[in-house]
Amino acid sequence: MGTEAKKTGFAGIKKPLFMVALIALLFFSLITAMIWGAVAIDWRSIFTILFDALPVYDSPAIADINPVYGDILLQIRLPRVLLAAAVGSSLAVAGAVFQGLFRNPMADPYVIGISSGAALGAVFAMLGGFSLTLGGFGAVPLFAFAGGLTTMIIVYSMARVGRAVPVMTLLLAGIAVSAFLSALVSLLTYFAGERLHMVVFWMMGGLGGATWRQVTVMVPYALAGYLCVSFFSRELNAMLLGEETASHLGVNTEKVKKILLVGASLLVAAAVSTSGIIGFVGLVVPHFVRLVAGPDHRFLIPASALLGASMLIATDTLARIVIAPSELPVGIITALIGAPLFIYLLKKRRKLRYFGGGG
Amino acid sequence: MGLNIDIQGLKFTYDAHPVLDGTEFVVQRGDLVAMLGANGAGKSTLLRCISRILKPTGGHILLDGSELQQLNSKEAARLMAVVPQETAADFDFTVEEIVMMGRFPYLKRFQKEEQQDRDIVKRSMEMTGVSHLAARSIAALSGGEKQRVIMARAVCQQPEVLILDEPTANLDIGYQSMLLELAARLNRDYGVTVIAAIHDINLAVHHFNRFILLSGGRVLATGRAEEVITAENIQMSYGVPASTYRHPLHGVLQVSVARGHPRGDCNNDGRTIHVIGGGEEALPTLELLNQKCCRLSVGPVSAQDSSCRFAHFNGFPVIIVPPFTTMSSENREEHLKLMRSAEAVVIPPIPFGEGNLPVVAEVGTVLKEGKAVYIIDLEGVKSRDYSGKAFPLLQNLVGEGAVALKNFGELPKVLFPDGGEEDERKG
What is the CATH number of the domain that holds A272? Predict the structure, then answer.
């Protein structure tokens, strides 16, 4: 009885502790990412530059700092780090939602083919060489975004039976459409000629050349998608017990599915169109959070957002520094680090008990 | 508390196959109803229509006179809770979290669970006896524990109507009774209307007081057990011959399905055996000989005797004597006739009273005429001889040529030595 009580006591503070740790981790990775790079900037200078950049405060110490540092930090590193945070958290949140919605541990943000659709759009734009721009964005992100959302709509309408959309059908339709679109992407890539390099690089995913313009679009986007999804956390919990059970508990399952699907798809489409196909973040992060804190989406979603942001900031920093001054596509790093980490977790916990497999 | 449920001309078609075909019945406020019927009779479909998982293709479901479809999801979940046969519970939710989900229909989008909700969760868990599991993961529980947790969640919804869809199908007999007793208690103490689809009729009869028998998507019978659970209705709905009887321990109506003769073991057709007396003690012997395809006759027994029911059920001749009387001379004649027409007479391990002594004497008569007589468990008679005279009489019979057997299992060997050898060769 004593141990039982202790357990409950620890369980009571486990989640808040974990949340504090995640916030600290995010802060730490933000600062580290700004320190490290082709040019190292010490943390004192970073704080000085950042505070000075605030419109309400002029730092007297700014005079002692090389103005190039200020440019590097404010024009290159800061937008890149913020974009990584937005993209990472979007992917992790979308992954958590898709895994919950499909009650499938293998689901990731790309499971219903949004990435393939976006890739097709992007490759099409690259090969077409369109000079279209809209709101400061070039043809590639615009086409990618459009491709991703179109795919979501196609998959959704293919899976619809009457007014209901069975998740299993949705998953299968997604896999089929995804395979078809990937084949088209490969076909186009085959004929890419001298642009092949560009296409392959885009598909590996990366945050190079991040701009404030991207940040100002992506961050509100990520926030909006995040809010939309997190409003339905409690419904998503009930959906984990099966749609019928959720419906018995008073969840309007068809409506919730539609909202979550659209919300998560927007997150994914936005993330993919700004940074290409970055794998593994959306798969691994929600699993990691569940292992520590259980499946409750009211905690899982904010925690995944924080951890996803930290993970992508960290891996992107590695991508910048391992072969500096040149850089690796971040997608390679996330998979290189994410996959072994995930396998380690699997081995350690034997199985993902919270996800099927007969308990 | 409780709601009226009025089902009017309900239709549901699955792939052009009508599952519900104009189902009609009324469940009164505070009823405790078991829905019976064969697989495919439409029980589950009907319950899934009521719980709004399926949309009927025709007809109406009225809750206290208003159309069920008019309610929104949360309104419906405040009125109605469902305990399914099985719930996917592979996730690491704690029992308490699962039960708290029962509060979902009462919480607004941004509302946190309040003390009141926590109190209801606590009470629901106490009532269903799962409080000690509160912090455990639902995935780690046994089927019976899990089902009680689901029940706690249903209680937590504070419903007016509780729907149970084969809730006990995967439970052992202990949990079966416990779960249905819980449903009955909700009905009794809180006036919750309960509708449960139950496969096991004999289990249902113990816990419910109204019955609806479905057959081919229609209501075949509805009412009390005696009105619904009849041999004819069971035959019509389940397509098997059955007979009903009162449970010997508490008199509750029970159903037993007739069994056919095992094929290949029936080379004893036409062998006629008479079995003396009755009671439950004679049943194993009767059943064994019946399985060996003997043509049996039974007697003398009283009309309420289980051996008498056995004889009626299987269509064997039986001598019935009124209870507490000795045999009339007519009965005696008839009994002698049956014994004489049989190849052999068997005395199963029945208790002996004064009333049985004339019967034993008559067995002596046919024994002298050359009839084969088998006495099962002669030694045991000492403890079952309430007349004090039967044991010596039976010993005398053995002296005159009756065969004493240790138990009824030895009967086939002595009755059909050929059949026995054949069996061994086959084996």
Answer: 1.10.3470.10
Of residues B219 and A325, more confidence is placed in B219
Q: What CATH number is given for B5-256 in this structure?
A: 3.40.50.300
Q: Is the CB of residue B255 less than 8 Å from the CB of residue B242?
A: yes
Q: What are phi and psi of B373, to 5 degrees?
A: -125, 135
Cβ-defined contact of B104 to A248 (cutoff 8 Å): no
Spatial CB neighbours of B100, under 8 Å, sequence gap ≥ 6: B113, B117, B118, B121, B156
Q: Is B398 exposed, middle or buried (0-12, 13-18, 19+ CB in 10 A)?
A: middle
* DSSP string across B234-259: HHHHH-S-EEEEE-TTT--EEEEE--
Counted domains in chain A: 1
Structural domain includes residue A228: yes
The per-type count for chain A, helices as H runs and strands as E runs, is 15, 0
Confidence at residue A70, expressed as pLDDT on a 0 to 100 scale: 86
The answer to whether residue A295 neighbours chain B at the CB level (below 8 Å) is yes
CATH 3.40.50.300 domain span(s) along chain B: 5-256
Q: Which residues of A touch B83 (CB under 8 A)?
A: none
Flag whether the ipTM exceeds 0.90. Answer: no
Q: Top-level CATH class of B272-422?
A: alpha beta
Residue found under tokens 């971040």: A330
Nearest CA in chain A to B102: A249
**Chain-chain contact of A250 with B78 (C-beta, under 8 angstroms):** yes
**Distance from C-alpha of A143 to C-alpha of A150, rounded to nearest angstrom:** 10
Q: Looking at the complex, report in whole angstroms how far the Cα of residue A251 sits from the nearest Cα belonging to chain B.
A: 6
| Nearest residue to A95 (alpha-carbon basis) of A237, A304, A276, A355 | A304
Contacts of A4 in chain B (CB under 8 A): 135
Averages of pLDDT over runs of 10 residues in chain A (359 residues) are: 45 84 96 87 87 80 82 90 95 95 88 91 85 72 90 92 86 93 92 84 84 86 88 93 92 93 90 89 91 90 96 94 84 88 74 46
- A11 within domain boundaries: no
